[in-house]
Model the fold of this input.
Amino acid sequence: MFRKNMELELLIEDIGVNGEGIGKAEGAAFFVKDTVIGDRVLVKIMKMKKHYGYARLLKVLSPSPYRAEPMCSCYRQCGGCQLQVLDYMQQLQYKEKKVRNNLERIGGFRIEETENDRQGILFHPIIGMEEPFFYRNKAQFPVGTNKDGRIITGFYAARSHHIISNRKCFLGVGVNEQILTIVISFMEQYRIFPYDEESGKGLVRHVLIRYGFATQEIMVCLVINGCGLPQSEKLVEELQKLPGMASIMLNVNQKNTNVILGERMINLWGRDYITDYIGNIQYQISPLSFYQVNPVQTKKLYETALDYACLTGNEIVWDLYCGIGTISLFLAQKAKHVFGVEIIASAIEDARNNANINGIENVEFFVGKAEEILPQWYEREKLRADVIVVDPPRKGCDMKCLETIVKMQPERVVYVSCDSATLARDLKYLCGQGYQIREVQPVDMFPQTTHVETCVLLGRK
Ligand code: SAH
Done:
């Protein structure tokens, strides 16, 4: 009954993965860009499938009371902050609801509304941020030329490689803008050209900036299409004046690729890394290291994981998908022994190094797939586990990994997830194999975006 070009009125009730509003009419869902939860709108259907369609906003009939003034003038073109026009309290509600819905619909769990019902699942309110802007410790700005031939830096317009000039991103730290201004003036003064994807010519591709929230140390890394930067001492001289500057690096990337960083690093000034802390654990972070981008919320997430692990000092713990060992080191302080497993070899190098600088000796790291390493050590060496922590990428855990967890029969499983749909799928499996969800804690690691992180405690029935 719905057809292309039809007009209809909708109440926007939900948000899609890309931040578009969703409204329902007669059992069909419609995706409408540029709307927010609570808007009553008039739309025109652009494309119709069986149970859903895409519609264009014609008119906001009555605006949502939850509309917020966007901070950033580029938020629409950028697409990085899908939720910036939605009031932060509503963003939090939306994310909490998303986790709850996925657990109920995909996982088939029943979530009690009351907090004290110990029989059911303890679903905690989402942990939000007091200041939901300027939280990112890492930023990567592409460098290019505008149509007047001026050097610009900013971000790629959504789903394109067209650079929109903007030195002030509201998710990043304030010093980013100063650094970009220094880099651009330097390039203008010494006639150093930005890289051009089409021709493969030009030198400077990206500016990567990392900032240690706890230490206030700054790293600037220019990604270049070449083996050196002419007059680099002049750039160093300027950057060095910024308080906290600790590391100025070049990264060589001469490939025609979307991947930002190449393999080779050149030190221009200072250390090869910056340091930062999460809690009382120190981490060394190089331009290539994976490191959580929101340190304030990361601490809260890891504290939740630590709390759920319920360690007394006697436990054998496995931390699967451990990255640079951030969670492993956090847990090692309270466990007997921690084994970390991660697929990327350089991350494990970082993990071992971080264990060393903190004098933590009761951890051991393995490079490989969780679904291969865990069964190997369990079947061959009969290694056991009291607690298993998993923090997989969006696709969730491999079946073989889950099966081995069940065989190992740990007392507790702590599941840290960045995708509540695959989380719900995996929890459903574990709960069919003798485990029970005890607690669920959503954490807002990425305010202004649709992403939500969740930490879940499972215990044996
Ligand atoms: N726990 C870490 C990192 C989590 S991100 C932290 O909090 O910082 C997920 C990690 O899983 C990434 O580092 C990724 O490289 C790794 N990974 C992806 N697939 C894997 C697999 N099959 N086995 C082990 N690690 C994997």
